Amino acid sequence: MERKDVPVGIMSVGAYIPETYMTAAELAHKSGIPENVIVEKMGLRRKLVPGPDDHTNAMGVWAAQEAIARAGIDPEEIDLVICTTEEHKEYFLWVAGIKMAYDLGAHRAWAFDMNIKCGTAAAALKIAKDMMIAEDEINTVLVAGGYRNLDFIDYTNQRTRFMFNLAAGGGAFLLRKNHPCNRVLESAIIVDGSFSMDVLVPAGGTVMPISHEALDKGLNYLEVTDPEGMKERLDAKSMQNFLQVIRDSLRKSGYTTKDIDYLAILHMKRSAHEYVLQELGLRPEQTTYLEDYGHVGQQDQALSIKLGLAQGKIVEGDIVVMVGAGIGYAWGATTVRWGQ
């Protein structure tokens, strides 16, 4: 069946930024890694950490409230909430999206949670657009959520050092069918389940229920089960797939990498960030390196766009590509034509 050409635009973007943070010096003290390595190689001058009331879904709600206020709409106009709140949230076995819709006053909306870790943003935007095209009754969709998986980091475990940049915050996109601005174009997503057992929290699920013994052994923190094997396999695929989803999203949207004006990219180590820019032919000012924020999971893209707009890096007519990657492993990108 032929796909209907129904424009979907981003009405507004919101991001919740906690007031508290951990400096590179503090991270160095906790981890034993020299401060200059954290700043220069890991690319962190500081990172956002949650305050006492910064619970995961609550941060998503606050980001959504900002997006709704910026759009100037009544929450009752929202037809669907796609909640990107991370599974580590206020309560276990709890649907965060339903609570989010209720807290926002989006009483007409139905809601569901979705998650492919830090690759969720691109997938959620794709699903939001596809559902608006497929369903006449869905005209306004909120994609929003919070993140604070840094709670599962043991800074003495060097096997997990590539995740020491995990931070906290919230992000939101408000989309509307036939909106004349900021058109959401096409997405590309790649997953590879061969990495699905490489990064996990050993205790707390049905395989190893939580127990005093598990807690004593620190099995309630993120662990890398095969560090050397994962690195060898991931090095061969990660950057290739990362660049592939960017190129595929652009190609499907009628563009090439030469057309990119701004890249809303997740936080990664400095050398990887610079490699991506080099491969795409981009200048540093065509993105925002989140060295003062850290990696806020699947909310990095909303945060990057908020910062890019505030700093004048995103202007009318720009081609913006949002890209992320999540453990599991998933890579995703979405292209947006900004402005009218």
Descriptive notes:
The protein is α/β, with parallel strands linked by helices and about 350 residues long. The protein folds into two domains: about 10-180, Peroxisomal Thiolase, Chain A, domain 1; about 185-335, 3-Layer(aba) Sandwich (Peroxisomal Thiolase, Chain A, domain 1), CATH 3.40.47. It has ten helices and 13 strands. The strands form four sheets. Strands 1-7-6-4-5 form a five-stranded mixed beta sheet, with helices on both faces. Strands 8-13-12-11 form a four-stranded mixed beta sheet. α3 crosses α4 (about 95-105). The chain is globular and about 55 Å long. The mean pLDDT is about 95.
The amount of beta strand, in percent, is: 15-25%
- For the record, what is the CATH homologous superfamily label of the largest domain? Thiolase/Chalcone synthase
What integer is the average pLDDT? 97
Oligomer: single chain
Q: How many beta strands in the DSSP annotation?
A: 13
Rg (CA only)? 19 Å
The level of helicity is: 25-40%
Any low-confidence stretches, pLDDT <50, length ≥5?
none
Tell me the number of structural domains: 2
Task: Give the overall shape, derived from the CA principal axes.
Answer: globular
Total helical segments:
10
Provide the spatial order of strands within the biggest beta sheet: 1-7-6-4-5
